[in-house]
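Pasting two entries for a bug report.
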Amino acid sequence: MLANVVDVSVIDVSLIFVTVSPTARTIEPESETEVASVTELMRANLLEVFNERDDAARRTAIARTYTPDVTFSDPEEVVTGHDALNAKAQRLLDQAPDFVFRPMGAILVNHDLGYLAWGFGPEGGEPVVRGLDIALVDDGLIRSIYPLLTD
C-alpha cells in the first residue's frame, strides 16, 4: 500500500539514520537515577553494614539502606527487620575478627534488582569465602537481600 503513495526507490537512507540515531542513544533520566540508587545501596550493604565493626555507624547505615521490614535470607537463616539484620552482621564479623568484605567486580543492576559479587578474607589477602548478594529495592531502600556462597 505504501509503494502506491511513495516511490520507495528515491528515499535517502542516510536521512533515516540521522533521524533515528539520536533517539536510539537517548537515556531517560529516571533510569540513570535508578541505577545509581541501587548501586549505592548495594555498596552500602556490603561496606557500610556487613563490613562495619562499629555498632552505632552500622545502625545508622542500616536505617538509610533498608526498609524497616527488610528480609535477609541466607542459607543458614532468614532474619527480618533492622535489629535482626544488625545482629546478623555482628555475628558474621565476630566469627572472623580479622576478615573484611570487599567487592569482587562491578555491581550489576536490572531496574529494582541489584547484584554484587564479594570476597571475605584477611585484609590485603586472598578471600577465604566468595559469594554474591542479590537485593530487591523498593522506593530507594533494600526490601530483601539474598546472599549466596559461591566458594
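Entry 2 (this is the one that rendered wrong in the viewer):
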Amino acid sequence: MIIVTGYFQVARENRAPALVAARMLMSHSRREPGNNRYDFAEDIDVPGKFRFYEEWQSPLALAAHLRAGYRLQFRKAVASLGVLSADIKRVDSEAGAIHEPAMDTPEGQATWSPTAAQPQQG
C-alpha cells in the first residue's frame, strides 16, 4: 500500500474556493480503481490550511491518479488561489520507504524521489 499525506495552505480569504476544489478532487478520487481512502480536513487552528491523506493499493493506481484530468484541474484551481505553503510525503508501506515529491514537471505530473536524493526527471 502507498500512503500520500501532506497539506497545502491558501490565504484565509481563498478558503471557500479551495474547499470547493478539494471536495471535487476527493469525490472523484474516492471512486478511482485502487483507491482505499482519500480524505481532506481543514486545520482547526489555521483557516485555509487543508490536510490530506490518501491510500493507494499500488504504484500503478497512484500513477493513474496523478494523470487524471480532474487532479490537474484541482492543481490549477488551487494554484490560482495562491498557495502560501505546501508539503507532501509518500510512504511505501511494504518497502518502509518515505519519499518526498520532486519538483512537478511542466506537464503537471508529480514525480517521486527518495528523501535526500536528487529529483527524478519525469
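Dev reply: Rendering is fixed now. As a check, the viewer should reflect this: The chain has one domain: 2-114.
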